[in-house]
Each structure stands twice: as C-alpha cells, then as structure tokens.
Amino acid sequence: MPFTAKSGKFSANINTLTMGTGDKAIVLGGENVLPFYTFDAEIENAPKVGIEITDGGLDAEPECVKKYYEGCSTVVDMAKKAATFEGVDFLSIHLEGGDPNGENKPTEELINIVKEVADAVDLPIVVCGCKNVEKDAEIFAKASEVLNGKNAVMLAAKEENYKNVGASAGLAYKQIVGAESADDINLAKQLNVLLTQLGVDAKSIVMNVGTAAAGYGYEYVVSTMDRIKAAALQQGDATLQMPIITPVASETWGVKESVATEDDMPEWGPTEERGIDMEVETAAADLASGSNAVILKHPVSVATISKMIKALI
Amino acid sequence: MALKGLDIFKLSPKKNCKECGSPTCMAFSMKVAQGAVSLDACPYFSEEAKAAMSEATAPPMKTIKVGTGDTEMTLGGETVLFRHEKTFVSKTRYAVDLCSSMDDALIDARLEELKHVDYDRIGERMYVEMIDVEYDPASGQDKYVELVKKADGHGRVLILDCQDVEVAKAALEICKASKPILNGANPSNYEEMSKIATEAGVALGVRGANEDELYDTLAALEKLGNKNLLFNACEGTAKAAFATAVQFRKAAIKDSNRTCGYPSIVNVSKIAKGDWHLQAALLSLFTVKYGSIVIAEHIGYAEALPLYGLRQNVFTDPQKPMKVAPGVYPINGGDENSICLTTVDFALTYFVVSGELERSGVPCNLIINDAGGLSVLTSWAAGKFSSTSIANFFKEQDIEGKIKCRKLCIPGKVAVLKGELEAKMPGWEIIVAPREAVQLVKFLKDMQ
Q: What angle do CA B317, B320, B325 make, to 5 degrees?
C-alpha cells in the first residue's frame, strides 16, 4: 500500500521580494509551504546566504576569518573579496562603528564606506545599522539616498524609529525596509502594520523577527518563527507574510563558544572550528524554522549552508 | 480519528468509584481522551469496551525505551508538531558511527574521542549518548562481533546497524542485556529480524528503499504484533531524509496514522560523509525537525557546544522555562574582593548576563537569586524579586561571610529597589546597572 501523506500546501504565500538589481539580483520568498517542505510543493526561491563585513575592516574580524581576506587593506577590498567566496548571494555591511556607546563614527564616514562598497560590487546590499535607534535613523536615511536605485535592504527599522526609516527608505528612495522585533509575534505584526499605514509597500518589507545563538534562549526564535509561519500561511495573515531575514554572525561570533581561545579552554579544541559550527548550526536551525535569508561571516559557514540549502531544495 | 471523552464515558462503568484516581467516570474519560492517562487505570471497563477503544485512544506516536539503568532513554511519544502547541517530550539523541570495515587504530581513536565531550549544562549531563555500530559484509561476522564487544561497555546505548540475520543474532548475544537497538529490518528480512529482536527484548529499526516500502514494512511488522519499532529516514540525500522524517511525523500526529508513529533514525554521516561542518548543520536541522536519533561521524566540542544548547532550548517545556541553581558564580576569576552583581535564576538571563560579564574581562561575582525561574521584570512584578527577597537571600547564603566586597550592582530594570536595598542591607553600596545586558561591558569597564 503506498504511503500517502496529506498535502501541507497552503493557499496563501510568503511575499516574493527582489533584492538588488541586474544579473545579481536575488529573489526571496514566494513559497506556500513550510520551510523546505518541497514534498508539498516546489519552492521556487531557495533561501539565500549573505556574507557580513563591517566598517571596522580587517581588524574587526575574528582572528580565524582574517586569513580569508589576506591582502585586503580597505573595507572595499574586503567587499570585493567576499563577493568571490563560494555560496555568497548578497553582501551585508554592518556599521557597528556607528554605535554612540562604542566608536561613535560620524554618519558621513560610514555612508562613504557604504557608497564605495556598493560601487565596487554588483551583489545585492544589506546595510546593517549600529542598533542605536537615533543614529540608525540617520544612517538609513543617508544610506537610502546614496544607494538610490540599488534596491538595497535597510536592516532595520524598529518600533522606536520606524517613522523616519519607513519614510526615507520606503517612501523617498524605494529601498527595502527591514522591520526588526525581538521574538514577539505581536510586535512583529504591529511593526509591519505601522509601516504599511505609513505608506510603505508591504511587498517591500523584510522582517528580522529575532535572532539568538544556539543555546542562548533559541527556543524563543523557533517558536516565534513557527507561529509567524502558521499565521502567514495557515491563517493567511497578510501582515506577517513578509520574508524573514536573520542576522546570524552578529549573534554567534560574540559568544563564549566562538570566542574562547584554546589556551582558555584546552579541552574545547581549536577556536575556528567552534566558531564555524556555532554559526552553521544556528543558521541551519534558523532556515528550518523560517528564515528566507541568513547573514553569516565565515566563508566556510557560507559554503556549508549554501550546500545544505541546495541539498534540501 | 481520536475517540472523544463522551464516547469513552458511554462505555464506562459509571460507578464513580474513584479507584482510577479521578473523581468521576466522566473526568477519567476526558483524561483518557486527551492521552493523559491509560484506560488500564480503570479495573471495571468490559473487555469488549476496551477492545473497541484501545486503538483509538492510543497516543499518536509510540514511546520506545532503550538502554538500561543509567543509560536508559526514552524516544518518541510526541503529541504535537510545534513546541508552542504544548511541548516536545523526547529530546533528540546523537550517535557517533563505527564500521567493521574500519581499522583498529581508527576505531580505538573514535572510541577514545567520543569520551571527550562530557560536561554539565544547567544540571544536565551532556555527552555522546549512543554509538552506531555498522556491519560491513566484506569484513565478516567475527570482526563485527568483536567491534560490538568493544563498543559495548562504554556506557552508551548501541545501535546495531546490521541487516544480516545470523550476524545480528551473534551481535545480540554479546550486548542484548544493555538493551541496544537492532537497526536491521528491511522488506526482505523483517520477519526473521523481528523474531530475534523480540526474543532478545530489544527495539527494532526498520528500513525501506523509499517511503512506500518503509511504510509497508512497518505495517507488516505491526501485523506480526511488533510495535517496538523505529524507522530510518530514507538514506542517501538530505532531501529524502528530511522528507521522510517530516512526513512520517506529520502523518502520525496530524493525520492519526499510527503506522508512522515511531521514532526516526537519521544518518547524516552517510548523507555528508567527510564534511563535518555540513554534518553539524544537519545535526542541527534534524534536532529542530523531528530527528529522534541522529548519527554523525564526529561529535567533538565544536559540534556539541551549540548542538546540546540548541537541544536543551528546543526541548524545554514552554510552560516551565529553565532555571539555574541560585548561588554565587565567580566570573573572570572573581574572588572575595570582586564587585558583585545580582539578578534572577531564569536560565536565559543567566546565559545572556554571564556572557556579557565574561566578555568584559572584569573579575566579578554574579549572584543568582531564587526568583522562581522568571525574568527580572516578571519576577519583580510577581513579588519574587524584591529588596526583601534579595536581602533574605544574602542572609541565607551568608554572602557577607563569603565576600568582602560591599559593592552590589542591581539590574537597571529594577532601579526602584535601590533605596529599599540600601536600607535593608546596610554596609552595601547599591549601584544601578544598565537596563540591557549588552551595555554591561561598557558599564563595567567604565567603573574600573
């Protein structure tokens, strides 16, 4: 007797969203099934993998990542190099130097870097803020302007600054507006509603619904994504049908498992292997739970996750 | 179709004798319908009634027990597809694989290596719990039996990956007392395999070249009366394995297809041989998506640290968040003269805060209060984290006897407690720390 499974295909879809322009443009979302459930229906747009570099250049990278960027003296050099790594679909430039509690680099300096990088590579670009809501509003406004026509992602607007970011990124310059919330389905929904009420096109929004390294309260990420997918696909809730983009590198490279040296913890073995595995295991779980795109740092992680996605799709 | 409570009640004795532990027959019937209690708890149901109901009231997925004593573990028994619907109940187990075709040096090295990972995470022992012992026909029966002998006695549950009935019989003679899994049934040998498995009292793993063959073989075994089963997710590709694991779990739980209701075995070492990082990614994938046992080539600290953390997170009951033991946690070599910070015993708070404190490099003492495992704001709102509770905790634990430093930082979110704490804990300088853990690094460094 054949094994017949009931189809889990839904009548609702995740929004289809294009990032970048030209040949290297990529498409997120569009599926009407749960993550990787290709047995229910074909998934046209496989999840995508981005690579992250920061305004801090080579010095700011974890020790084990530096060797992959040998010979790169500027952030632009790194961007060009990153574009050649296996599995890279898009580039994320993380402007952590803008943090007022950190280096507090002026917005102008950061935007110059963004412009140079965008001119040097033809990959789709994600501009990742510094987490300070006021500074980010400024950064995203200027970034949207200099990247006019590039269809870049501003990652991300939050509850506190969505009006500014929505207006500049979504309305004035037609970039893609990232909407960030912290593991709360109601806040995720609310932010999307506020942005669309402002006039931002729902089809131009991507969500960061929360992120954590594996082992660090990761269950909240899983359950938030599970519930968002259920709302979007089962209940057809259009306010949660935006594709999900999950920054992984910024979470995983700071935790003890990735940072501790072999001198500190001899029984843990080489730092590089731990950093890669923490990154790929977190990314794999994110993709299984609902991410349409993940942002990673180590070139081996990017290649590995890219391979995994191809194997599953 | 699951039987409703009312239907069960119609067939019940209606005596309300309370011998089953429930106050009335109606209450008992409702519990049975939910799968919360077994029908057997009532001694007065007629045989006909029991027969009519047993199929319908059985849980959607069998609970399989393997191992003995310290190594005993439970697999299966799931009732929901997503943890937020209730909770997952049987955490994914991981195995390292050995094959009789490997030379002795490699085998000894692998057995030695698998002992490395052994540590405590929030009161749970994290170690490689199972060993998959594969039979390569080319190496012969004796070599395999020798390998099984070697592997048995390492304090791990064995999975005997052997599809040859005679060889399996010999292997079982060696290790059946430790309750391994005989992962050997396939469409052509399942009758004999089932016989030797049942005789030895062990669970039987089932294979099929595709989902139809797998399903048919499971159904045939059930007809023979053997329900002590597990199934192998179709091997070869990640896509096939994922499809089997997901579809069978969904069929059992959502569509009440009990023939699919058994724990799954996923062999990612075969899917991604030689690529340890890809195996790490797949270990994670199948932890989140319905892998009951996942077999890989290598599980060292690099793979294990994120994986066991992920597993602990995912298999936490949403209604019972994890908590760490209250007490003093010295960080960065903190001693009796180091600055103190105090917060709640919610595991997530502990991990996030201790992580940031470690990153700061500043020696300090993290003092965890018993706040019922709730977050800072929740416990404060519930009255479980207050100036009184903190002062009492410090007294009970004799913090003043253990630590000379009299600087205590409190979470920024409960800054309101500062005045009261200063009054209740004379001699202590109470400092209000930031509201968010990420700000702790700068906060501590600025204080130096």
A: 120
